[in-house]
Structures are given as C-alpha cells and as structure tokens.
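so im writing up the methods section and need the Octanoyltransferase record in one place, dumping it here so i stop losing it
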Amino acid sequence: MTSPTFPEIKHLGQADYDSTFAAMRAFTDARTPDSRDELWIVEHAPVYTLGLGADRGHLLAGATQIPVVQTDRGGEVTYHGPGQVVIYLLMDLRRNKPGGKLYARQFVHKIEQAIINVLQAYNLVGERVEGAPGIYMAGGDHKGAKIAALGLKVRGNGCTYHGLSLNVAMDLAPFSWINPCGYAGLETVDMRTVGAQAKLSDVQQQLAEELVRVLATNE
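--- predicted struct ---
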C-alpha cells in the first residue's frame, strides 16, 4: 500500500446535487489503493437529502417546495443550499492515520474538530453533542442550535464519500420545513446569525485546509 498523501482539494463551484452524488460513487467505484484522496468543495442549489434510515415523516409542511433526494449516507434528513459550505471527503481510511487504519469514529471526531477550529477562528464556540453528529453552538442566545451537519458513507474497504456542511450565510427558512437530522424543533443557525460576517469562499478554503491538517495529525 502507498504511503499516506495529503488529499487534493478540488473546487467544484455551484453544482447539481444528483450529478455530484453520482460522481462521488463513480470515483469510489474506480479508485485503487494508489488513488489519491480528494476533498470536493461545492455549493448546492436548494435540496433535501435523506440518509439510509431517514423517516420521510421528518419532511414537514413547506418541504414540497424543494427537491428531495434519497442517498446512501448515514443520518436523517438535512438541507443543502446557497451560502453553505459543503465538503465531500473521498478518503481511504486505511492510510490516513500514521502507523495504521483510521477508524470511522476517529474520522468523524477529526472532521468535527476541524469545524470547531474554523468556528473558533471567527470567535464562535462550537461543541459536539453526544449521540448527535454535527456541531452545535456552545453558548449565547442560540446555545444548542445546530450550525454544521455530518453524514458519511464508509464502504467495507474503508473508502468514504459524502461529508459535511457548515452554514455560513443562508436562507434558513428551509430548515424549518424539516425536523433537522430527525430532531423536532431543533434550531438551525448560520455563522451570520451568530455574529460572524464571513465570505463563503474564505470559509470553504479555511475548512478544507483545516481538514487536511487535522487528518494528518494525531489530534
């Protein structure tokens, strides 16, 4: 097996969800032990995506205005739209950790840490919530509100796709038309709502670079 290499960061710009989903699966189908890992940065038009175990009952009144796509990631229903950082992690977990395999739980922890670190750079404090993947606000008027979501597919050979979303400056109304990640009444915020004025392109690049850094360390 080849030695670990840093993932290549690819900017896809604004891209259709369905075609991106198909491209992720095709990339993963075709990759070999020598294929370089990749991070895909993308901004989607409004779309709801459903995880494998998602309950369509979490799509509420108003959700009919937005397309719904069934995916093969874990998790429940989530929303992607303009003003949100989406990064897909096309990784081979067997070679990401110095000295051995990176397990899925460690992988999730590292992704969440990268998000926390980027929020901290904007003077925002995010935290994990046990049993609820993603990042939530740790204090202030919006304590407990979700600001980032996480959903992954890990194949039996250790290769991953899907990834994370971090809300930067969005129309948040579509989150009110679902039970985000299956939680009724869960408040969802973006960085703008909690006081951080940030350019989407800046946060996209910062988060991608922080993911590369955290994945290459023992943090």
